[in-house]
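About this split. The held-out portion is used to measure sequence recovery: a designer receives only the structure tokens and must propose an amino acid at every position. Recovery is the fraction of positions where the proposal matches the reference. Here is one held-out target exactly as it appears in the evaluation file.
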């Protein structure tokens, strides 16, 4: 066989490996037969590739599926301990940190109070906090870390590594290159809502809109398997859509923005800054909190209906409020339906699956995805 033919076979093998890994990543647990059918690969190819990947420690067998007659098919999944990535979510008053394994599972998480300051000391302290967090985590060897992702509440120019603007942090044109140099790992940056949306939707091909209901309202548009960013990285600024003329003041300086009616801060401020306490008061039927929640749901319903009319896609509710919303989805769907001109049901409206530290998890998962896409090649070490 000549060199050209060998190179073509090698490329075909690498392509099959990556397709198999992406398929396992998406499905979580699969059999060899499901891989062959799902990817239209021959069974000998699947057997050879999965054997190779098991030998390398990239995938592993974790039991067997229920029998449908005959031998039970073995479950294959990505390794839970081969490698990890870390994520940091920076907010005005806190940092959230996570460790994510190759399966996309959050294995460690912590949230610390740490007021943002655009100073060298702040970022040096950030690096130290991450080092301490990793030292106490399940990561046995720092060489197992693929990289660290950092999310910010603002507009990110990833190519130039600049935080272009953040109303929440009250900064503009912050160079992030110095931060990258402080870490001993590769570093990625992303907007917080885009990161949270990626954690939610990375393994789906269905178009959707993600509405982030945190201390500021943001969002992301998931289109054709990727986040739509817009011409100037300003897409999905749903918090600054006009909801009410001559309405409440927004932190951006305007009035009537969605953010002034649907942010988590509106709820937590009513409970002394504690969002969990707000929902506890709801459970106890506190009339004051029930009234606030009633108004909040009505404004949220109008916002959801507007997004549905624009995008005609699923709408996923995330952010801090998204972590609590599932219990109240029935009520919210009824309210949304009252505003709808076209829909006969509101099954398109969904609560988020990643309920805590979604932004940190999403930016960490970017490294997992990059690794699956490009680094699982024969003889390539972490």
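Reference sequence for scoring:
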């Amino acid at each position: 066989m000549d060199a050209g033919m060998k190179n073509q076979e090698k490329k075909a093998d690498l392509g099959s490996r990556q397709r198999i890994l992406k398929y396992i990543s998406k499905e979580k647990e699969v059999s060899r037969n499901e891989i062959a059918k799902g990817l239209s690969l021959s069974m000998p190819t699947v057997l050879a590739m999965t054997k190779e990947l098991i030998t390398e420690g990239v995938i592993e067998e974790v039991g067997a599926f229920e029998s449908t007659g005959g031998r039970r098919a073995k479950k294959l999944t990505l390794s839970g301990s081969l490698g990890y990535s870390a994520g940091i979510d920076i907010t005005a008053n806190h940092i959230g940190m996570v460790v994510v394994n190759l399966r996309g599972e959050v294995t460690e998480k912590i949230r610390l109070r740490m007021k943002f300051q655009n100073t060298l000391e702040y970022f040096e302290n950030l690096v130290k906090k991450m080092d301490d967090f990793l030292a106490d985590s399940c990561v046995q060897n720092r060489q197992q870390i693929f990289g660290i992702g950092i999310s910010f509440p603002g507009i990110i120019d990833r190519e130039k590594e600049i935080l272009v603007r953040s109303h929440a942090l009250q900064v503009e044109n912050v160079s992030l290159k110095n931060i990258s140099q402080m870490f001993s790992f590769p570093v990625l940056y992303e907007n917080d809502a885009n990161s949270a949306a990626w954690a939610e939707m990375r393994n789906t091909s269905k178009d959707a809109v993600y509405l982030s209901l945190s201390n500021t309202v943001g969002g992301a548009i998931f289109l054709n398997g990727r986040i739509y960013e817009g011409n100037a990285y300003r897409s999905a600024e749903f918090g600054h859509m006009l909801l009410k003329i001559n309405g409440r003041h927004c932190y951006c300086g305007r009035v009537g923005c969605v953010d002034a009616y649907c942010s988590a801060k509106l709820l937590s401020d009513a409970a002394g800054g504690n969002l969990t306490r707000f929902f506890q008061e709801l459970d106890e039927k506190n009339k004051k909190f029930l009234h606030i929640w009633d108004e909040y749901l009505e404004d949220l319903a109008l916002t959801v209906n507007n997004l549905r009319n624009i995008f005609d896609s699923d709408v996923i509710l995330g952010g801090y409020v998204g972590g609590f919303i599932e219990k109240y989805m029935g009520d919210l769907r009824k309210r949304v339906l009252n505003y709808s001109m076209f829909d006969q049901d509101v099954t398109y409206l969904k609560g988020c699956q990643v309920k805590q530290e979604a932004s940190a998890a999403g930016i960490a998962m970017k490294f997992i995805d990059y690794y699956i896409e490009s680094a699982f090649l024969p003889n390539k070490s972490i």
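Annotator remark: Residues 11-78 form a domain with the Arc Repressor Mutant, subunit A fold (CATH 1.10.10.10).
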